[in-house]
Amino acid sequence: MTVAYLKEKPAGQGSTPSTPSAGSGMRSAAARLLGTGNGSRALSFGSNGTSRAVSGSSRMGGGIGVSTSASGSQGMANYDGKGAYIIFNTADTLFISDLNSHDKDPIKSIHFSSSNPLCHAFDPEAKDGHDLLVGVFSGDVYSMSLRQQLQDPGKKPVSYQHFVNRDKDKDKDPSQGGAASSRSTCVAWVPEREGIFVVSHADGNLYVYDKCKDGNTDWTFPTVKDQSQVLISHAKSSKSNPIARWHICQGAINDISFSPDGAYLATVGRDGHLRVFDFAKEQLIFGGKSYYGALLCCSWSADGKYLLSGGEDDLVQVWSMDDRKIVAWGEGHNSWVSAVSFDPYWSPPNSDETEENVMYRFGSIGQDTQLLLWDLALEEIAVPLRHPSGGSPTFSSGSPSAQWDNACPPAGVLQPSPRMRDVPKLSPLVAHRVHVDPLSGLEFTSESILTICREGLIKIWARPIHSESNQQPDSSEQVVGNATAKDKMLTSSNKAGASSPSFKQPPPVLFT
Questions:
Q1: 2-198+215-225+252-389+411-466+489-499, CATH topology level
Q2: What is the mean pLDDT of the chain?
Q3: Region (Disordered): which ranges (predicted)?
Q4: Rounded to two decimals, what is the model's pTM?
């Protein structure tokens, strides 16, 4: 799931605003989607590709879904104005919904006949209008204009560039999944680098592309002899595209994320390692391992100082760029963690914003269908190591990471997972079962939280509205409309982990 904010079309190109701005209609739209009486009907694709009704546990929890009647030819205005859109994929189709629309059905569906879309990314700063990337199962990538897709009445992508992954035809080992091993797993625009994007694959490779170059040129890269080692190779010709290949790990790269300034690239993979690279220098800065199994997701804080990861160990890890290691881990999910994200729009009430009082809010979703919200207070995780009676710090006996407890690990070293008792533990502020099916995507906006499940159902959760005096409701029994008991406001006072010293008293969090 991607939230895309289209800007106003330049005046010289005859712009005519046709959709409300992202901010002006969000609250009313969320109210329409979430508070429409006795439960609005939502549709989504079932696993067999047919539509089915989905009834959530929340009486006020409407959602954006996909019905078989959703048409890509709905005649609306010219889309020259700014607007906010939700992009998501199901089976062989990419869907686009207007975040501020009354209609819950997608306003556009784009059918990919040759290969199913798997991942996508949007660049609001693209100068040439080609702002949308779509990675598909074959390993190929499409670059296109979101505005042009909305304006076209058809169901096929238009005015696109096709970047062919020629490695998909090489080394197809049926025992390793055959062609599936080259499938696209994630696409991302490189911040502050116009026209440059990267694509990760299930074979452990990541390719760097320049959208200004032809996507069908011949190119070859040297064979990777040791699949467990990082190997970065560049194209021999200046006309080749991709311009570089990074072999990251053995097995799939499950997620990638750039720091906000584009300086660092984080990857997580099937081998259970998080790796952080200096993207310009093409150097591994540091990395670490999960407590168990693969890592599935990662995300940066807005200031680029912290990094989240989650995966098959059911935990959320917090990594510090300054310390180059895990500084906290969170326990609360009952199954694999599907997505993690810092909330860039949240700030603690009455905070003096001093270094030691900085607090971050982040969220996580899992295959247990739960949305968890967490607080990360720097003053709580900056705890001294345990000292025995003799006064010296204690280290884990025989632990290779013991020597790094008081210093940054050497550059380029993949650390083993530290002993859990040596790292501060976090507990969630809020744990709420938000869908019936396992969750796959999480997005924060200035006025809502968006979640999507594997069946293609999107729910929009309105943020609490605070008065100018920052006064908070004082009762955990406060409800909105005719919400049931399960829809009541959840505060830290009624959560089991709220008394943990890892957290300050948070403002109430309202789910409708």
A1: Methylamine Dehydrogenase; Chain H (2.130.10)
A2: 75
A3: 6-27, 165-184, 468-512
A4: 0.76
